[in-house]
Structure formats: structure tokens, C-alpha cells
Amino acid sequence: MNTPMRIGHGYDIHQVIAGRKLVLGGVHIPYERGLEGHSDADCLTHALADAILGALALPDIGHYFPNNDPQWRGVNSQIILAKAVSEAKRLGYCIGNVDISLIAEAPKIGPHVAAMKTMLATTLETPESAIGLKATTNEGQDAIGQGLAIAAHAVVLLIRI
Ligand code: MG
């Protein structure tokens, strides 16, 4: 664990259901449905946290925040991401840069990207210029394309402090 750089990848998907708030990248996005999950179900932030933990060869976020532990019901996923960042620091790394792809058929994500970057930069303790964040659709294909789920991929580069 003393290489100058470490790379990590994370992926997450959550089902879209009625009666939940939609939170992505730590930002509440007005929409008639939200994501199902034990936490706030922010799949973008979960993918990012798992990318950091993966870069560190640590277990995934389910190890630190079990989805059967009432303590974490409804938890703000920025707390999960902050834990991953603190683990990186503990092991001597900071965030170099991250790149995220969010896959959602609806709602439109573009108007919220700037707010998400501001939120994530605060939690990651990086400048916003270290955060790539794109949204795409699945062109009507599969469950994501039918609006039944939202998914995210993330990669991260950690740099030795
Ligand atoms: Mg998740």
C-alpha cells in the first residue's frame, strides 16, 4: 500500500419506486419517484464510495454500512462517501480525480450537475475541477431505459500524500 497512485472502479444500481425522494450526488432532484434502498439510495455516491474503497483494496460500502442495520436507515450517503475518503487518508492517499457516469432515462440530470459537483467536491475534499460527471440515458433499452432503475459507474485515481 505505498504505490504512488491507485485506481478504483465502482458500480451501483437502484430501483425507481414511488414514494421516495430522488437523491443523486447528494442533491435532492425534484421528481415524482425516487430510488429504493436502506439509505437515501444515492447510487451515484455509492458507486463513487465503492471506487475509493476498491482503489484501497478494502471491502465495499455494505461492509461499513450494512443494509440490515437500523442505524443506517435513511442515512445521507455523503456520510458513506466521507467514510471512504477518511479511509483513503488513513492509508496515506488523497483523491487525484474522479469520473462518474450516471445512467438515467428520467428526469433530466443536466440542470443538477453543477450542484452535484459542488456537493461531491466538499465531501471528497477536492476542487470541482477534479470531478468529471456525465449523465446519459440507455436509449430506451433494458430496465434503466424503461425508467425502472438508475445506475452509476465511477472511477477514481488516488494519489499518495
Ligand atoms: Mg447502493
User: Assembly type of the shown chains?
Assistant: single chain
Strand order of the largest sheet: 4-1-7-5-6
Task: Quote the beta fraction.
Answer: 25-35%
Using the coordinates above, name the CATH class: Alpha Beta
The shape is globular
Number of structurally distinct domains: 1
Within the CATH hierarchy, at the fold level, what is the topology? 60s Ribosomal Protein L30, Chain: A
Q: Can you name the CATH architecture?
A: 2-Layer Sandwich
- Bound ligands: magnesium ion
**Could you give the distance between the termini?**
12 Å
Distinct helical segment count: 5
Order of H and E elements: EEEEHHHEHEHE
The Rg value, from CA coordinates, equals 15 Å
Q: What is the strand tally?
A: 7
For this structure, what is the CATH homologous superfamily?
2-C-methyl-D-erythritol 2,4-cyclodiphosphate synthase
Give the key terms.
5 helices; 7 strands; 5-stranded mixed sheet; two-stranded antiparallel sheet; 31% strand; binds magnesium ion; 60s Ribosomal Protein L30, Chain: A; alpha+beta; 161 residues
Structure commentary:
The protein has 161 residues and is α+β, with helices and mostly antiparallel strands. It has a single domain, classed as 2-C-methyl-D-erythritol 2,4-cyclodiphosphate synthase (60s Ribosomal Protein L30, Chain: A). Helix content is 29%, strand content 31%. The chain is built from five helices and seven strands; from the N terminus they run ββββαααβαβαβ. Strand 2 (23-24) and strand 3 (27-28) form a beta hairpin. Helix 1 runs parallel beside helix 3 (77-90). The longest helix is centred in the middle third of the chain and has 14 residues, at 77-90. The model has no long low-confidence stretch (mean pLDDT 97). The structure holds magnesium ion. The site of magnesium ion has 5 residues, from strand 1 and helix 1.
